[in-house]
Design brief:
- By secondary structure, this protein is α/β, with parallel strands linked by helices.
- The protein has two domains: about 230 residues, Type I PLP-dependent aspartate aminotransferase-like (Major domain) (Aspartate Aminotransferase, domain 2, 3-Layer(aba) Sandwich); about 90 residues, Alpha-Beta Complex (Aspartate Aminotransferase, domain 1).
- It has 15 helices and 13 strands.
- The strands form three sheets. A seven-stranded mixed β-sheet has the order 2-8-7-6-5-3-4, sandwiched between helices. A four-stranded antiparallel β-sheet has the order 9-10-13-12, covered by helices on one side.
- Helix 1 packs across helix 12 and helix 2 runs parallel beside helix 12.
- The longest helix has 16 residues.
- The radius of gyration is 20 Å and the shape is globular.
- Bound molecules: pyridoxal-5'-phosphate (PLP).
- The site of pyridoxal-5'-phosphate has 12 residues, from helix 3.
Amino acid sequence: MNIDLRSDTVTVPTSGMREAMHFAAVGDDVYKEDETVNLLEHRIAELFGKKRALFFPSGTMANQAAIKLHTRPGEALICDKFGHVHNYEGGGIAFNSGVTTTLIDGHQGMFTAAQAEAAIHPPDFYHSPKTSLITVENTTNKGGGSCWDVDELMAIRKVCNQYHLGYHLDGARLWNAIVATGENAMTFGNIFDTISVCLSKGLGCPVGSVLVGDDTIMEDAIRVRKVLGGGMRQVGILAAAGLYALDHHVERLAQDHQKAKEIEGVLSSRSFVKNIVPVQTNIVIFEVNPDVNANNLIGQLENSNIRISGMGQGKLRIVTHLDYTDEKHDIVLSTLKTVQPQ
Ligand SMILES: *Cc1c(COP(=O)(O)O)cnc(C)c1O
């Protein structure tokens, strides 16, 4: 049995999801005539209390479109040093928008309103790029699946209002944060100008992200998506997977979180583990002692058909997901209890 814990993107559509895709009503979405896409967009917009939503082929494209909508070339955006938009979107901030980043040295991918305010270039200091956007990530990917405190997000909203900045949430794993904290989607909709959510991570769809926002900021979104090559045709086949996932795969995320917690429990009892980022959702990031080779651990686990990710500098990542069954979980726990990396 193959056990892949490198990411929550490795899932394959369930038979129920495939059936929903098979029977989806479709049309040409470039003409906005795909009723299943329209339904998904409408449903997600309502969930967040926003006027508009737009389906994208990837989270990267949804984030990059949002950055384009909030900025002009030569400006700067603020994000954490771990931010996906900065580290893992191929330099798209510069490539697509001609924008630079001001990085915050935060904690587990999160920062305070005071840190955000300190990172804003003074608006009248024309030597610096003009700061026009703050982006945050919830849950944080490189920050170990941590969930933001909503009060801090609201405090940053106030900073954005004071300095007339846009405020974007990279919510690739916002579903995990919603389930883990019991917060309402509407709460996030009220705080942010734009939010991207992913359907192909925890929710188990093959493809898809959705960007939500109100009329003004979203006015040009469909044009930006077209420019980026994201206008697709009978894409209701994919939107149907998203609708199915909203009905069947959100609440069950709690099971992924429970399994990650149990993995943390076993790792914390092993002497080769130096530290673990406190587990809140479905990501376990841990560091091995300096005398232990992380690649050796990866190799030993691979010999037991368990795949995890190396992050460099002795750090490793495990991500639980829809296809990680109880049976697989038992194997992983017992393997982690006995493995002896060198
Ligand atoms: C995966 C991820 C994305 C991008 O999603 P893709 O669909 O892989 O392009 C964006 N932000 C975060 C935090 C992610 O984890």
